[in-house]
Amino acid sequence: MSTLLLLAPAIAWGILPLVVSATGGRPVNEIFGTALGTLIVAVIVDLFLRPTIDTKSFILALVAGAFWIVGQLGQYTGYDAIGVAQTMPISTGLQLVGTSLVGVVIFGEWSTVTAKLIGALGILILIVGVILTSIRDKKDTLSNKGNRGTIIMLVFTTIGFITYNAIPKALSDSGIAIFLPESIGMVLAVLVYLLFTRQGAAFRESASWRNIIGGVVFSVASLTYILSVRENGVNTAFIISQLSVVISTLGGLLILKEKKSRRELFATLGGLILIVGGAVITTFI
């Protein structure tokens, strides 16, 4: 059972980009469906388990869910612009760098000089990995300009993921107790996004409702990760969950048939190895 819980988050998070891309629709359809699907699962789980949570934790978890939408919308936009196989390594590497830095600056992690030096090495490896996965051939100037613009967008929207990951560390309640308020925050953030971007038509589009399956997949990943942390410990659960980036990247290449030149492929695979390696280093300090 512990092995299943260990692998389930990586598999579910790894196939999420593939499921969403295969389901179809625009990023707005994908983010709407994912948020709604997550809320549906969260309500069902809450009704059965009845976890308790205080008001402060509820509000902060709600805010965390809203920030998750910022990060996930960036990813979905990236899938559409440059593909899953390029978006996921870049996004994951940026999240690991940002989350590590927040842990050091705000939460006082890596307290010793040795830990800071090893952590800095891990972050450097992550950055090199991200750079490698972003390499593109210089055949198409217009395409490369679009690629740079998407990467810049991913840098800024990843702040949403970093905030989403950081807030639970400051809460007295965690795990399953904060899952429902996070999902409520997700839906509220999506509604605000639809309102301000005047994309209310997404409510009537079938692609939005089909993408509820994405929310179910995300929920499976999140809930099994919570259980895996309890069963296997934080470090082991986190490291194995990062294998999701390998699954999604290879899935983008093999299942979605995203094209890469020989040079781009080797750079991406090398970058993946460095990102997973950097994750191991920064986690086991």
Could you characterize what this model shows?
This protein is mainly α and 285 residues long. 80% of the residues lie in helices and 0% in strands. It is built from twelve helices and no strands. α1 (2-23) runs antiparallel to α9 (212-232). The model has no long low-confidence stretch (mean pLDDT 90).
**DSSP helix count?**
12
Approximate strand percentage: under 5%
Radius of gyration, in Å, reads: 18 Å
Biggest beta sheet summary: none
The percentage helix is over 70%
Structural shape: globular
Task: Indicate the low-confidence ranges by residue numbers.
Answer: none
Number of strands: 0
Mean pLDDT across every amino acid position: 90
Distance between the termini: 27 Å
Alpha-beta classification: mainly alpha
The helix/strand series, from N terminus to C terminus, equals: HHHHHHHHHHHH
